[in-house]
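Researcher: Structure for this, please.
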Amino acid sequence: MSALMPTYAPADLAFEKGEGVYLYTADGRRFLDFCAGIAVNCMGHAHPHLVEALTSQAQKLWHVSNLYVIPGQIELAERLAQASFADRVFFSNSGAEALEGAIKIARKYQKDNGHPERYRVIGCENAFHGRTLATIAAAGQEKLLEGFAPVVDGFDHVAYGNLNEMRAAITDETAAILVEPVQGEGGLKAAPENYLKGLRDICDEFGLLLMFDEVQCGMGRTGKLFAHEWADIKPDVVATAKGIGGGFPLGAILTTEDAAVLGVGNHGTTYGGNPLAMAVGGAVLDELLKDGFMDRVIAMGEAVGAGLNALVEKFPTVFVEARGLGLMRGIKLAEGIDNRAFKSELEGAGLLVAPAGDNVLRLLPPLIIDATHVTEAMDTFAAVAARHAAA
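Model: Predicted structure, token format:
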């Protein structure tokens, strides 16, 4: 029996190396990676620029802690701010940590502005914000909360996409609204048109912070640096992670100047923002901000979306609906066809995808895919679907 705590149920696959959009097992089997470490490996595997940045930094300095100035933090924070809505940035190690920090910001912001009674955060049903006690409470899903009572207080939940419910849920204790512009674990549901703008209007009206969880949908995943940019609005706080480090553990909280309320002694991290993470994060941003990169992501996202829609039309007894935005896509399977079992069949055919809620399969390929990879993925889906359609 393994000494590992049995918190996961991994596929019977172990990879020895990766190159570009492919992963390889020790016996030489090749897999097209449309999971990308759950939207993490945005530049694929062993990207030369990321490898050079990490190895170069590793030969100089790994860790000193935030007791000292880390020049890479200053540089990367300024670059992120210049490329986004933000004025201030805090670096963490993960998305859950970034969300924890965002929740603390909501409470301290209201206290600093004379409203200590405002501490509650309104989120959405079927959300996912991490696995800490506060973030599972922020998501509110029973399957996440089971076994971890008492639930952390301070969170309310309404239907995703419903502005009327959101407005009705606001009380004198509400501090902020926390929403994913595209729900990932919840089934690849993109925000309805004008929903994010409506949230901005509500927050302005009631003096609330508008906070977005862009851990999965941020860092170029939808064809813009952050998914909320499609709505042409400015949030107060954004938590991001996953793709920001291209595979190296890294997260960040981005805020406006008004929302940058965390000061000395309010928050901190031992590993967060270490020189290794800053070097890789900078290399990822180099690639994301290249001329034409986002245009390519948009084009490939449209190709994947078209391919999924074609699958739904061709195999109506297998697939129900295609969802998502950019290169954050999903396809809902018909009743009686389990998404995890279908995922295993795709793996047997050499394609890696990720499961999601609502019986959906997620396609989260590296942002560097081309049309040949889209064709390969759709052909594999079709081959597996044909067996189900014929059953």
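Researcher: Any notable elements?
Model: The two ends are 38 Å apart (CA to CA). The chain has two domains: 15-33+292-390, 49-288.
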